[in-house]
Amino acid sequence: MIAVDLAEPDDFEAWRAEARRLVALGVPPHEARWAEADGPRDLFAAPAPAPAPASAAPERQVRASRAFMDLARKAILHSDPGRLALLYRVLWRLQEQPRLLDDAADGDVAALERLAKQVRRDIHKMRAFVRFRSVTDEDGTERYVAWFEPDHRIERANADFFVNRFASQRWSILTPRLSLHWDGAALLEGPPASRGDAPSQDAAEELWLGYYRSIFNPARLKVGMMLREMPRRYWKNLPEARQIPDLIAGAQQREAAMIATGASLFEEAAPPSLAAIAGGIEACRRCAIGCNGTRAVMGEGPANADLMIVGEQPGDTEEREHRPFVGPAGQLLDRALGEAGVDRQAAYVTNAVKHFKFTPRGKRRLHQTPTAGEIDICRWWLDGERALLRPKVILALGASGARGLLGRTPSIGKERGQAIAQPDGTKVWLTAHPSYLLRLDGEAREREHGRFAEDLAGLARMLRG
Amino acid sequence: MDLNRKTLEHNKNFMSKTSVMERLEILADAAKYDASCASSGTSKRDSRDGKGLGSTEGMGICHAYAPDGRCISLLKLLLTNHCIFDCHYCINRKSSNVRRARFTPQEVVDLTLSFYRRNYIEGLFLSSGIIKSSSHTMEQLIEVARILREEHDFRGYIHLKTIPEADPELVAQAGLWADRVSINVELPTDAGLARLAPDKNGTQIEGAMGNLSSAIVEAKDAQKRFRRAPRFAPAGQSTQMIVGADGASDADIVGKASTLYDRFSLRRVYYSAFSPIPEASAVLPLKRPPLMREHRLYQSDWLMRFYGFAPHEVQQATEANGMLPLDIDPKLAWALKFRERFPVDLNRAPREDLLRVPGLGTKAIAALLSARRHRTIRLEDVARMTNSVAKLRPFIVTADWRPTLLTDRADLRARLTPPAKQMELFG
Fold first, then answer.
1. Which of A226, A264, A284 would you mutate first to test chain B, the one with the most B CBs within 10 A?
2. Could you tell me where the beta strands, DSSP code E, fall in A339-401?
3. Per the count of CB atoms within 10 A, which of A274, A388, A440, B105 is most buried?
4. Residue A364 in this model has a pLDDT that exceeds 90
5. Residue B267 falls within a domain, yes or no?
6. What are phi and psi of B426, to 5 degrees?
7. Which segments of B196-338 are extended strands (E)?
């Protein structure tokens, strides 16, 4: 085992010299242990041997394509400690397969491309998201200072961009790893900095915040799109991002005001097809849940189903898998329907609310009950599904599902187990929501499961008769 | 000159500070109905020599995103929102009851420099309502660009909206200072223009676009022969159409866009879904077009520009009413109509056939073409090079995969709907 130490993790030339030497010495990738100054080390590896004397066996000539060099220069800046070994492995394989990089389907090549891509994106985001604040130097000259936290070790590699753009002004970019200073003639490198070292305000920033507020068009909220390009982790260093929650809330209030004044949120004709509903709910931003950046979950099942099942809203699993009733509650429902002799595959399954309402708790997304107002807005889509499917019987799971169907919140305890006739001839059948059963314990659980089974047995009878 | 010092002074005088801010808010608000914020495609410049300010890369930079999902790359402003025209779809029309404001050219210059020095923006996108006359307004716009370029040696990006009714001499001058010039065709049909923009004239708009287009070509040509020939709008010209304000179908719009690309060698055609504006005119439809429609039009634009689709092929993807389906993207819609063209063998098919496969982008295709010289492509290889194999499967053949019957299934469309959401194609 041969250990190679890299003093600076982003020093491509140092890596290149070491890698050339090892390939020339014929050290295969699994024999080399790469480590960097601030990373973990392999205590049992031997240091790399000194260069062999000229008289020793002729060294191999080391080859690397231009494409590899370009890719490696980017990939080495990645914070992944495994990148050095990966780079060496690809270099090693290049000696036998000079055109290896053309094969994007190769695992190593794909991994290298991915690292380089992430680095390129980080470089681009730094150019976009550095925000200078102006201070006055001791000699009375203005200096523009920014605090930035990149994901990868791109600071030095990116300095040129800022010199090319701002050579005529003094500037400093402070980062947790190092600081860069331009004095108008030369680029100097300083020690790591902290956020407190950067100025906390700027005279023109208010105008920029005002511009950001005004250029935003509240009639077209697309929060997901914004998050994709400006992920939350960058927000803390973007002064304008502080305003985002208020802007979104304001846009929602604007919609709410429209409802209050009696204007309809839906001015178009009823959706002509299930596919139109699927497209429509995906783009629907008429309530706060639609604006939370989650994907809408469309109903699923045969279009000629006799039975339609309506739950409350997609949960965490459903949102991720983009299908209704695939989480724990869905599984319980499947089992219970099976026991009652109802074929779930023959039923059309959907929800009263099409987006997932939640509160973030750490990494988890906790279910939140939609408000009556939200259910009522989303009823437009559920009505669309009902009109297109024309089922004989609709099973409502829980009060939210029932509200979406009936337009009022019924008491499940009082109205369950009886058919509620609808103006269009369908019958609505109420029961508890399976996720309610999942939350119960002991005797209550026993009892509620029993009632649930009874309700479904009644449903089965109704479907047969 | 420097806004920083200026605003500090203004701090003492509360009135005038609120006034800069207030006017900025009014004139930025009025500018947001222009979709373009691109800062790409111009010549490469820098200010490494320590003179002047700014640089441009080939690729633009989006410095921020607003919650409407749009990129903020340029300081997008109107010089003024006073206007003597009365276009019904426009919030700034003469008969509209909005607050009015105006900046002096120097104020816009100060704002631009002050924002640029803080790395908020790539440059300026300046447009204006028509004041006094079209030519007078055009002179004011040019003055802003001239001060930036001549007095401050500004090397960032400038996009000037040019006014088709202005003196052609002035329009030509704009191209000397700006990276990009644009004239909005506004509406896809002449009838729509006549009804909704009574002060504008389609022939005049297209005449002005033609002048710009030939000026751009001449300057490119001159630059080849004389190194010091003046540059003229190196990032070319673009235009914008409002969607959903008149009765034009998607097929009409696609046809119009393609004609515009051909006749004026445009860099981009932007689509702006007509959005309900405060103080709406009674002539306008009450119904707003779904935002998705705008997105589908951008996708069809991409198909024509990067995927080798002819305009009539994109039009084949529309439904009987001439509209593109909203629930699936136009490439998938086309593939579902022409199933006999599928499946495509990823190991053998030429590039132009690969470009037709829904779910395969130009980058993935380049990777496939290069990789298949080294190996026989299997499904797992495709997975490594693309986002989703599930969407692709019905349309492709690989060494270990052939979609039996799948391409012929009647419910294929339903199985592929809704597709993964694509990125908004602004930029």
1. A226
2. 348-351, 358-361, 364-367, 393-397
3. A274
4. no
5. yes
6. -95, 160
7. 237-243, 268-273
B148 lies in the same domain as B125: yes
Per-residue pLDDT reduced to its tens digit, A385-421: 999 999 999 999 999 999 899 877 888 888 898 888 8
Distance CA A202, CA B4 (A): 8
Within-domain flag for B9: yes
A35's enclosing H/E stretch is strand A32-36
| B271 and B321 share one domain | no
Domain limits at B76? 3-277
Chain A touched by B213 (CB under 8 Å): no
The answer to whether the CB of A416 falls within 8 A of the CB of A436 is no
Judged by a CB distance cut-off of 8 A, whether residue A127 touches chain B is yes
Whole-number Å distance between alpha carbons of B391 and B101: 51
Triad B71, B388, A359: Cα angle to 5°: 60
Q: Across the interface, do B111 and A207 touch by the CB < 8 Å criterion?
A: yes
Sign of CA dihedral A247, A249, A255, A261: negative
Is the CB of A176 inside 8 Å of chain B's CB atoms?
no
Residue B268 maps to a domain: yes
Last residue of a domain, one of B216, B243, B277: B277
pLDDT digits (tens, 9 = 90+) for A11-23: 999 999 999 999 9
Interface membership of A255 toward B (CB under 8 Å): no
Question: What number is the average pLDDT over the span A138-164?
Answer: 94
- Are B266 and B385 members of one domain? no
Residue A359 has pLDDT above 90, yes or no: no
**Residue A460: exposure state from Cβ atoms within 10 A (0-12, 13-18, ≥19):** middle
Mark whether B251 and B338 lie in a shared domain.
Answer: no
Same domain, B271 and B359: no
Does some domain include residue B282? Answer: no
Q: Do residues A225 and B69 touch, judged by C-beta distance below 8 A?
A: yes
* pLDDT surpassing 80 at residue B195: no
Contact A247/B48, CB-based, under 8 Å?
A: no
Cα angle at B42 between B36 and B46, to 5 degrees? Answer: 120
Give residues 126 to 185 of B whose Cβ lies within 8 Å of A.
none
Q: Could you give phi then psi for residue A293, rounded to 5 degrees?
A: 85, 0
Do B161 and B231 share a domain, yes or no? yes
- Domain positions in chain A are 2-124, 130-197, 205-260, 274-464
Side chain identity, residue A445 = R
- CATH pick for A274-464 out of 3.30.450.20, 3.50.50.60, 3.40.470.10, 3.40.50.300: 3.40.470.10
B275 to chain A: closest CA residue: A219
Last residue of a domain, one of B244, B277, B310: B277
If asked whether residues B250 and B375 sit together in one domain, one would say: no
**How many domains is chain B built from?**
2
Q: CA A229, CA A245: separation in Å to the nearest integer?
A: 17
Once rounded to an integer, what is the mean pLDDT over residues A125-145?
A: 94
The beta-carbon neighbor of A216 closest among B66, B119, B273 is: B66
